[in-house]
Amino acid sequence: METVNDYLRNLLYKKSNNYQYNRNEEQSYRYLCDLINQWKQQYNSQNYYWGNGITIETMKSGSKAKGDAIKGKSDVDIFVSITDPNNQHTVKEYYEDLYSFLKPRFATNSLRKQNVSIGITYNGCSIDVTPGKRVNHSTYVNYRYYNDHNIYSRKNDSNTLTNIQLHIDMVRNSGLTDEMMVLKIWRDCHNLELPSIAIEIITCEVLKHLRTSSLYNNVKKVFEALRDTILYRRIIDPANTNNNIADTLTYSEKENIRKAAIDSLSYDYGNEVTMNKIVW
Length: 280
Hints:
Layout: H1 4-15, H2 23-46, E1 55-60, H3 62-66, E2 76-83, H4 91-102, E3 111-113, E4 118-122, E5 125-141, E6 144-153, E7 158-162, H5 164-172, H6 177-189, H7 196-207, H8 215-229, E8 236-237, E9 240-244, H9 251-265
Parallel strand pairs: 2-5
Antiparallel strand pairs: 1-2, 3-4, 4-5, 5-6, 6-7, 8-9
């Protein structure tokens, strides 16, 4: 007889997406990196009067880099680290300029502005490109320095200080990637507005001292936390204590999360759980 944990493991087998980049994804990554380098060269040639030009580094980021990727989301995530020694422009201006550069190079319905990233469909792949402007200080965590960046949020029309590599290491070293993937699948099943970084932070916080060997029991504890605290919970970016990710959610969005958690817990009858009504 299939247990709830068997059900969840089978679900993850079907829906996890943590494999190495396939051929199309690698080609897409290289192509986008080449375009981004062309953008940098064009940008510097157009702004030569500022003196020293910008430099960029590109890196694979997102859920695949973290190890908690699920199917149906972006296949390739690229973080663009922009070093601007003369503080020429804001990260919003870099976001808009990069979008304008990419726009004529893709079909109209293949390029879109998202909250902090530029979404691209190319070569059968879904790609997210997130530009970030490096700031002049770093975050020191667990005997390592992490480069901080400002990224632009279109939703709030504001900058957010964060640290992509710190997020990657937080998830990869948590031992909770299975729980995070189940919760992401749950979010998508119930059409909830809950950013992946919020799921990752909440999961780490809730299970820091409550983790068990049961995948379902761990996920259940997060459901209970969402039910009890999501309306007022602070979701603090580990790279920036001033960045409360909960502020990006409306009261209505939080209430939808709370109701979905209550509904999901209602299918747990103690000695039996109707798992396919909770996540599928």
